[in-house]
Amino acid sequence: MVVTAKPLTAHANIAILGAGAIGQLMYHKLGLTGQSGQAEECNDVVLIGRQPHTQQRTLQFTDSNGRTHHTTATILNRDDTHLANINLLIVCVKAYQVENALLPLLSKLTPNCHVVLLHNGLVPHLAVSAALKHYPGLGLSLGTTSQAALKINQWHIKHTGFGVTQLGHYCGTPLSAELKLRLQVLHSDNQPLEWYQPVLPILWQKLAINAVINPLSALNKCANGQLAAEKYQPQIKAIINELVDVAKCDGIELAPSQLLTRVKQVIALTSANFSSMYQDVAHHRATEIDYINGYICQQARRYNLAVPINQSLVAKIVALSQQ
Ligand code: KPL
């Protein structure tokens, strides 16, 4: 299926920072899914990439029905003056890239732009919210998605995991009703979009999902679905129990049994998917371990809690990445 978006940056007011698998997935879902659910032309979305010049690229998206859509996307350079038109910026870079990629852009955006962080793990929201104090019109929402995509090549992704996208306001100017409505295209039957207030408990819940699936799939070199096997269950429970104790000290009450059910659901929903950490290790890229299990260990140290299982996972992933 060929859908050619007019290469119009002038009308674009939504930008996705980071053209990795999740960034491209968000691009296609916002850009291709019209109210009717049919692929249709949409030219209010651009990607922001690392390349030295703004460029047009043909992107391919293989959807859940195995249909491949082609679209011409604008990929803005990080200095493009068009950034001044962007009033919704969805940040899909890795947790360890957020500060370097996002903070230099803040002064270039529309003064009332709303930023949404959509990475795995916790930590970067602290630096971003501190930086936002210098830009009183800007706002910050935090979010997480259990959807997954596999990169077939740099500009071709396949939708491999169907889950929920959860968002909530964190600080600054709230998201306008108009943009909230625009984001509703992310909502479809088996891939709901949900709003939460407060949002932090939801991010801790997603932290649990990533703290289990990501390191275990990377260490055991397996697809997410294989973690449903009986032999992994004691370790999964231990990771969750440690996380629940740490979250409690951070003022977040989580029920271990509910978390376990949620983790199992995501394992089932993304069973064919290879987690982002599995893929990072396989491609010799940096992992987000410091922002996932590493964050649990960091907070545990603050509260003098022992988290041996999470600690050993961090050590094993670090060792694996160095091999
Ligand atoms: O977020 C993910 C990831 O791989 O980083 C999950 C939900 C585990 C899907 O693979």
Automatic annotation (TrEMBL):
It comes from the Bacteria. Its EC number is 1.1.1.169. Keywords: NADP, Oxidoreductase, Pantothenate biosynthesis. Residues 202-317 form the Ketopantoate reductase C-terminal domain. Pathway: Cofactor biosynthesis; (R)-pantothenate biosynthesis; (R)-pantoate from 3-methyl-2-oxobutanoate: step 2/2. The keyword Mitochondrion does not apply. It holds the Pfam family ApbA_C. InterPro entries: 6-PGluconate_DH-like_C_sf, 6PGD_dom2, ApbA, Ketopantoate_reductase, KPA_reductase, KPR_N, NAD(P)-bd_dom_sf. Residues 14-170 form the Ketopantoate reductase N-terminal domain. It catalyses: (R)-pantoate + NADP(+) = 2-dehydropantoate + NADPH + H(+). PANTHER family: 2-DEHYDROPANTOATE 2-REDUCTASE, 2-DEHYDROPANTOATE 2-REDUCTASE-RELATED. Belongs to the ketopantoate reductase family. Catalyzes the NADPH-dependent reduction of ketopantoate into pantoic acid. This is 2-dehydropantoate 2-reductase. The lineage of its organism: Bacteria, Pseudomonadati, Pseudomonadota, Gammaproteobacteria, Alteromonadales.
